[in-house]
Amino acid sequence: MNQSYNLGGVQRPDHQREKPKRDKKKGPWGLILKIFGGLVAVGIVAALIAFIAVFMWVQSLVPSLPDEQVLANYEPKVTTRVHAGDGSLVAEFARERRLFVPEPAIPDVVKQAFISAEDQNFYGHNGLDYRGIMRAAIRFIPDKMAGNSLEGGSTITQQVAKNFLLTADQKFERKAKEAMIARRMEKTFSKGHILELYLNEIYLGNRSYGVAAAALNYFEKPLDELEPHEAAYLATLAKAPSRYHPVRNEARALARRNWILGRMHEDGHLTKEELEEERAKPLDAVLAPPLGARNSEGKYFAEEIRRQVSDLYGAETFYDAGLSIRTTLDPELQMVAQAAFRKHLSAYDRRHGYRGAIATIELPVDLDAREEEVVPGEAMPRYLWQTTLRQTSDQLIKDRLASDDLEPWHLVLVLSVTDEAARIGFRDGSMSTVPFAGVEWAREYGSADTRGPEVTTVSEVLNAGEIIYVSEIGEDFITALSKPRAPEPADELSEEELAEGEVAPPAPPLANPDAQYELEQIPAANGGFIAMDPHTGRVLAMVGGFSYGLSEFNRTTQAWRQPGSTFKPFVYAAALEAGYTPSSIVLDAPFVAPSLGDDWWKPGNYVAGRFYGESTLRLGIEKSRNTMTARLAQDIGIGRIIDIAERFGVSDKLPRELAISLGAGETTLTRITTAYSQFVNGGKRIQPVFIDRIQNRYGETIYARDQRACFDCNALDWRGQTEPLLADEREMIIDSRTAYQMVHILEGVIDRGTGAGINNQIDSSFPLAGKTGTTDDYHDAWFVGFSPDLAAGVYIGFDTPATLGQGEGGSNVSAPVFGEFMGQVLPTREVVPFRAPSGIRLVRVNAKTGKPANPGDPNVILEAFKAEDDIYGTRRFDVDGNPSNEGRGDEGITDDLGGIY
Known about the structure:
The structure is a single chain. It is built from 22 helices and 29 strands. Residues 4-10, 489-509 and 877-901 have low confidence and may be disordered.
């Protein structure tokens, strides 16, 4: 039976009676929910506070953000490149090796490789890759704990922001700034502009900034010739250049390159077949030579260009403005010039004996002992002596006691010595021998004129532990020209690579273990050589010394020396202007004239105490007669000589002293060779020219040597029109007939005179002319000469004046250099005779008397006379033996010192 209850007047059944409520908050789950709810609330508040804090922190960074607008007019530091006359690269100068290429000119394959490697979604994002950011955040703690470099997750846009406007430090502040700038950049610039900035600025190792420089430095190709696998390797270097070095880490570099090729395939840039083909190709990357000259023979020339352009535009423009400099250099002639100069300077040095080893080191007891560790890039540990040799030779090169630009010479260590041979070790660890024949020349040096006794054993010359130079027996600088050139040493490492603990790559093997070697030594004397086009003054070759690595001083352009008898042609040219003829008679006899102060000047001939009496003016040049020249100079007056020397540019200020007629003034090799050129070009003024044209980074010509107007030179093709005529604006500095007379006389120097030894080096069918020169006590030796279209000059002497040795004059020290050079060059050129101007007549004369030859006369030569010359009349020497004053020529040139000083 159901019971009911009265609840406020309402009866309810018992089963509907309200049960007492339970307090849920007092249960365990209620407590948990309460705690969780509290934490959520706290988290929301904390997140809100953090968001506000981050927002305020980010906003605080805004005022310090760099202005991305500076990237709108991007003009990076660009490499200045120096080119030879044939367009080949001579040198590069830069603080950062970079070539700027606008984005439309960058090939698609290069863009695709970098985008696939660095930022696959480049064209789709707004500056940030959020998935990459999350990935980097997840990896942050593990990488930090492991000490690994942190993954950045940066897009190409962010990398541009970092490289151009921020630092590279891995801090949250920098990353935040990078992200904000990247977003701004995406709103301001096109994707093409951002990619252009990236590909031109990125560092790719070996001092290569930007893809264009890297393409040349690693593959010797312009960008538009790169193949996909080459572009992929350049993209490999974007991550860490030293980690993917093409020599030290080739396997790692190949793996990364092939991975990038796979990404390019995934992105649709390569077909499956193309992918397999490109992956199968070898790396074939090389290391560009150091900045500066590309090879050893171009170093003096490149330095002269650096000096001249820096004087024109300043050093900052030269190094950073990306100039393209087209020079006058002929690379083939330059190689021959350096080889000829080195060959014959070394031959002179050998004639005076051996001065000893460059340095001596202590050898290990066990010559077969090796280091404990293998140097990266080498197959075996180095010998202990090899390590010491490398360290010592590097220091010798640093101290300029040795040089690495003397190919085919090698710097080696003497390991052991017997009477019959010496065992030598090379930097690469290979070994060979120096037999007795390789040291037979090395008699001990005593003085410029004395040597020790004949050498009978190798042990008399060499000792174990000595560092010396050697070359293969039978190979000199000239014969080395026909051999493949050894690679230039790799460029020094960047600060980034040094910071990563990288070491320089090993040098290529130098030695030929199957060859035998001979001892060499660096000459104590030095000098210079120059070759130029005599019609334009364009310098085709220049050697400033034996080795640029040993001395940067350019003895061709910077050394002022007395020219000796190479000055005489200007005295004789002044005489021809004054009315003399090549057959005029001048007395060769003892000569005395007052000198400055209370002294008397008493010149003598080459053979002391010997005089030859009445001689033709021609003979005075051919045999280089001093007393004849002094007497001639006294007759015509020193004023005329100074005038003609200054017109020819030999010197700007010569002392008014009769001794200058024998070369007592000073000049440079460049000046006097230019002066001789003005004889062969018909008496027209030229200046030595090293630079033809300079263009800025945009291809605009900012300097041109030839300023002549040519109104018909812009035709795109030839349609039968006549050749454009260019005005000859060269100034006449001497009668062209007088100039030719001097050329004709100087031919006799090589045919019959002091330069006759040159005929042993070159076929006599080649027309040549020139003059030897030797100064007092054999301090300086000269030869300056020319063919119809090529002039060259040689100077050899000590930097600190000293005698070259008795008999070591221009004819046997410098003339062989000229002969070797011309003997190598002229056979490759068209043979033309010297050009005679109108108003010249060639007459058969007796070479001894200068009188017109009679039938049957011996020793007959052709002599060049001006049309008005009286070849039968008085020949300027009277019966009293005094110089005649007839035909003194231009009396407007006065001489206030009576023609003596």
